Amino acid sequence: MAQGTVQVTHTGTSRWRRRTGEYASLAAALEAAADGDVLTVAPGTYRENLVVQRAVTLRGPEGAQGSVRIAPADGVPLTVRASAVIQDLHVEGQDAAAPAVLVEDGTPELLGLRVVARSASGIEVRGGARPTVRRCTVDNPAGVGIAVLDGGGGVFEECEVVAAGQAGVAVRSGAHPRLERCRVHHAAGSGLTATGEGSALEAVGCEVYEVRGSGVQVTGRATAHLTDCDVHRTTGDGVTLDTNAVLTLADCRIHDIPENAVDLRSRSVLTLTRTTVRQFGRNGLSVWDPGTRVDANQCEIFDSTGDYPAVWVSDGATAVLDSCRVHDVPDALFVLDRGSRVDVVDSDLSQVRNTAVSVSDGATAQLDDCRIRDAATGAWFRDHGSGGTLNNCTLDGNRTGVIVTKGADPTIERCTVDSPSEAGVYVSAGGRGSFLNCRVTGSAGYGFHVIDGCRTTLRKCRTERCARGGYEFADGGPDTAYDSGPLVEDCTGDESTGLTAPAAPEPVVQTAAQSPGLLGSIPGQRTTEQEPLIASAAAPDPARTSKAVLGELDALVGLDSVKREVRALTDMIEVGRRRQRAGLKAASVKRHLVFTGSPGTGKTTVARLYGEILASLGVLDKGHLVEVSRVDLVGEHIGSTAIRTQEAFQRAHGGVLFIDEAYALSPEDAGRDFGKEAIDTLVKLMEDQRESVVVIVAGYTAEMERFLSVNPGVASRFSRTITFGDYGPGELLRIVEQQADEHEYRLAEGTSEALTKYFTEIPKGPAFGNGRTARQTFEAMVERHASRVAQLADPSTDDLTLLYPEDLPGLP
């Protein structure tokens, strides 16, 4: 057969039809062919835009796969509108506005195609089309790998997306494909994405890896079901769900993820069965917002590579873990905010560096028949309104079994705390709690240690072999109410036949060798500046005067130039108000600011105080701070970014919108990045709502300079740039001194000099965190101090409070 010809084998029954024919072009052959005919294409390059509208077979010569190239200059190289068979062709698309292969109708079979393109999509399926696509590869570094849209469907078997400039596989507008044994990698967007009501994606035995974004993303009421799939080596989250998304993961593996392994919010629902989550840099499961829910059964979450909780539940979300294992993580379960809840049944939490179960800010945790082993703290109920139940649980080998503080009120029933190295149960600072039929055995400290006159209930509890005693109750000092203290009923210990709360309990001295979290820190969910500069990070009190807030600003360590800039702004606003009252024109003051500087230099703290100052002056209604970053503003499909940005503005109404690392909205290799949509929306909202929201953008100095230079529309909205300089050794020393004073420690003779030398010599590279480094240094000193003092049989007050030069950690 001659080069560049097409042989058509006719299969019609009419005796008037030719049995075979040869045509000089594919278009001519397709025009002459009828349903059932076979078109065999000779090797060569065909610069034609093919449209297959009959149920024919179009294929390359047998044994010469890839020898036929369909490569027009523009447009769609191959369009299929019938139940045809297309086999062993090499398709090249060059039109950025069109797909390389478009399937619009019928139930065609695409077999062994290789699509190499710089097109809007490599393979696109639309409308009523239901193709079967087998052993095809797509290499499209300019757009989507495979797109299924507008109600399209079909089955993709053993296909591979080897490169994509956007999502590897995109499903939207009511489409519903099935992927079997497919591989998606080296995509610049999400690996698999399903968006929009009615859209559904099913994947079986697939692998998603090496993508610059989320491995799997389901949003906007779409659904997905993944079975026996691997998601790993992404640059973003492993799996992302948003806005009423529904996802089921069965027998899947999510690992080697630098961010959250699974992140879901906005009323999304996730069901995991026999799925493993490991080697994640942030949270294994990150669950946000009322109506959002995770149900995990027979799953394993382990081997965290970061410093964040394995399971994070907040803002009214719910998580249910049944027969699961969580181990080798910094913290196992962190549930916070009123309405948030975790229910854990027949599960193991072990090898936890900090707290296995932490409950705060009014959240609830219910654990039944669970085992908590080898944690610094088994369960910590932190503050008022926080509670729940531990029922029939075993806490073994933890530093402290259960901690209850600051008005928290859990119920602990039929639980056993075995071999704690400090205390079985520790209640302080107004904590309450009811302990019913509980047992503490083999404690190296006390069994039940209740201080500060806490109104804790102990009923039918028992202690055995506790080194310092089964029960220790210390009063709260002279200001404690006369009827405070624990309520004790039918409790026993192996050193006595019965126990009642003493009428006048003797006070005890609390040692400093507590679990790491007793300094009060809660792991953060996002990378935000950890400010050690003020004693409390509570929300600002709008009742304070501007003078009081400026006084707090002045009390911060260093930041002299920053303080001058803020005072100058405050003076301008105050004088403007006075001029208006006097009937004079007031100078227009743009209140939006740019903060530049390294991490840990106090940008977030100053932004919070600035909002409070503006509220005290009547410029803003509330003055509260809403902190966001790129991930909170930028979506991964058209339209979602504007919605997210508008929602952030709405949350900040009457206060300050603080955009951390704002330069990430305009990356240097932006391409088709949706960050520009966020910037455009910001610019418009800053103008439309200039009286109700103040915007502060922050980030590294050089990156912010680039950001403002390439976005003049943004730069024009800001009145001034305030630069936050790095802290010097003396300022870092003052921060440590503040931390020590706050937590009732003292620096021994020579320690200040040793700290100054330490901060002078510490490397000032990218990992240097300024104030955060000072705080971490203090915490490391406290830990080393605790290890030293714990060896003393009867430590003095000096022993318990003095930090020596040898408590300093080694230089990183």
UniProtKB/TrEMBL annotation:
Domain AAA+ ATPase span(s) in chain numbering: 589-728
Domain Carbohydrate-binding/sugar hydrolysis: 41-172, 313-474
Keywords noted in UniProt: ATP-binding, Nucleotide-binding, Repeat
Domain of life per record: Bacteria
Matching CDD domains: AAA
InterPro entries the record matches: AAA+_ATPase, AAA_lid_6, ATPase_AAA_core, Beta_helix, Carb-bd_sugar_hydrolysis-dom, CbxX/CfxQ, CbxX/CfxQ_RuBisCO_ESX, P-loop_NTPase
One protein family per Pfam: AAA
Similarity section: Belongs to the CbxX/CfxQ family.
PANTHER family: AAA-TYPE ATPASE FAMILY PROTEIN / ANKYRIN REPEAT FAMILY PROTEIN, AAA-TYPE ATPASE FAMILY PROTEIN _ ANKYRIN REPEAT FAMILY PROTEIN
Protein name per the record: Right-handed parallel beta-helix repeat-containing protein
Lineage: Bacteria, Bacillati, Actinomycetota, Actinomycetes, Kitasatosporales
